[in-house]
Amino acid sequence: MTTVKKVLDQKSNTIYSVRSTDPVENVLKIMRDFRVRAVLVIEEEELLGIVSQGDCAIKVLLQHKNSADVTVSSIMTKKPLTVALSNTVEECMAIMVHKHIRHLPVLEKNKVIGVISVGDLVKNIIEQQGNQIKFLETYIKGHGA
User: Fold this and answer.
1) Structural domains in the chain (count)
2) Range(s) of the domain holding residue 22
3) What is the pLDDT of residues 57-74, one digit of tens each?
């Protein structure tokens, strides 16, 4: 079973964050500039929340609010679900499916060390399946008639 640690080791793992008092406009700029779909809310190394594209769209844009006037604290998901380096890909996928979320912050000793997205998990699962297919093809060819 693949762990969160292995998945994080395979990506750049830059942490994009804002403060709870920042305007939502800052979140949108980070999402645009770095092509991410969720931004963490961190203050003094403590994870306070997470803001997704959906949060911005539903709680700001669809309500015709100005993203420069709305603070992150008013739309963020407070105390988001998190995982540890030891969690498996399967555990993360189960959490995401059952809770209808796409991003999980990764904590070690209460400090954010990365974020796992559903895309990261799918990529890992596809890679595992590809490796398994190659193994089976080799096995069949090596033991065929």
Assistant:
1) 1
2) 4-142
3) 999 999 999 999 999 999
